[in-house]
Amino acid sequence: MKDEQFEHEPRAVVLGGTGFVGEAFAKYWANSAARPSRYLVHRSRPEWLDSSGMEINNISLNDPAQVLSALRGHDVLINLLRPDGSGWYRGAMESLKSVFRESGISRCIHASSIDVYAGVKDHLVDENTQPQPLSAYETEHLAVEAVMRDSFPETLVLRLGAVFGRGGRNLVGLAEEMRRAPQWKIALRRSLYGARRMHLVSVETAARALVQLSLDRKRLGSQSVLVTDDHDPDNNFAFVQDRLAAAFRRDLPRIGPTAPKSLLRVLLRLRGLPDRNIDRRFSHKRAFEMGLPSEPFADRLEKYAQHLSEQMGRYGG
User: Fold this and answer.
1) Which end of the chain is more exposed for a tag (fewer CB within 10 A), N or C?
2) Cα 303 to Cα 306: distance, rounded to the nearest angstrom
3) In the β-sheet with 12-15, what is the strand arrangement from edge to edge?
4) For 259, which DSSP code?
5) Domain 12-165+200-229+283-289, CATH among 3.30.200.210, 3.40.350.10, 3.20.20.60, 3.40.50.720
6) Could you give the angle at which helices 261-270 and 183-193 cross, rounded to 10 degrees?
7) Distance of alpha carbon 16 from alpha carbon 46, whole angstroms
8) Long-range contacts of 8-11 (CB under 8 A, 24+ apart)
9) What are the beta bridge partners of residue 225?
10) Sign of the four-CA dihedral 66, 68, 71, 74
11) How far apart are the C-alpha atoms of 81 and 90, rounded to whole Å?
């Protein structure tokens, strides 16, 4: 068996991708590939996509013939669709399984989430850890992973951390709190959550990983890969709060040690939130061994915090 799966630069097609991850992917793809990728849009079409230089096909997921026509002629599918817990996503992908198999596409790169580990009690999670979804949203993520693995000769499931960056929603609430909240509230939150792991990953790291795996000509084999910035010791609540405070020019009150983790677990349970991931870490080993890119976490966080400060100051959001 040849080591190379593709003799030419792989031709890529993106399913979904109209959000901020897809936008970042388009930017890095344009700088890395000789030809544009094709975006299959099944709902609204964002303005940035029209000026991205990518090919655009409007499709209906309920029209298998239309989807098949749009997929043919490509080597790699990047699936950036996301579930909402209602079950529509799983149903849509199940209905397209025969289309995927007939398309001639030999590699699928499927964006999933570390949320599938919500019920896991292990302190260190790697790709061999058995997922334990708790919510309908998490269960749908895991179910679609199985559908995609069964639909292509080679499927790489990227379980992404909490993706942050321009256009996303992660950290927006914390930024708004930093902008408006009184000092006592900020101090209390830091005391309670300071050491809590955030499991963040910059959109730049996620997008570059998607591009690199799409263009890799070698046989990679079907596998799961964790893509987070969790290997960085600064990926915690206190550090994130510090960067936001600097961006919003807030002087944080000096406090002593953070509250015991046992107290935080109780408070999370009272709010109906999982308490298992306070100090959980996600392994970076496989991503590192595969040579996947990793943008400097602190640098990306600082730039994003500054962006949020400028944006909220401009629009009063």
Assistant:
1) N
2) 5
3) 55-58, 38-41, 12-15, 76-79, 107-113, 154-160, 223-227
4) P
5) 3.40.50.720
6) 110
7) 11
8) 9/33, 9/34, 9/35, 9/215, 9/217, 10/75, 10/76, 10/107, 10/214, 10/215, 10/216, 10/217, 11/35, 11/37, 11/73, 11/74, 11/75, 11/76
9) 158
10) negative
11) 11
21: which DSSP letter? Answer: H
Distances (CA, A) of 213 to 28, 71, 77, 144, 241: 12, 18, 11, 20, 33
How much is the pLDDT for 245? 95
Quickly tell me which residue has 């388009």 as its tokens.
Answer: 26
CA dist., res. 38 & res. 114, Å (int): 27
The answer, yes or no, to whether residue 317 has pLDDT greater than 60, is no
Mean of the pLDDT values across residues 65-88?
96
* CA separation for the pair 228, 139 (Å, rounded): 20
Q: Angle 297-315/237-247 helices, nearest 10 degrees?
A: 50
- Count of C-beta atoms within a 10 Å radius of residue 33: 16
Residue 202 in tokens: 């910059």
* Other beta carbons within 10 Å of 173: 9
- Band (pLDDT 50/70/90 cuts) for residue 193 is confident
Q: Is the whole-model pTM more than 0.85?
A: yes
Nearest one of 244, 162, 234, 165 to 204, comparing CA atoms = 165
> Which amino acid, 99?
V
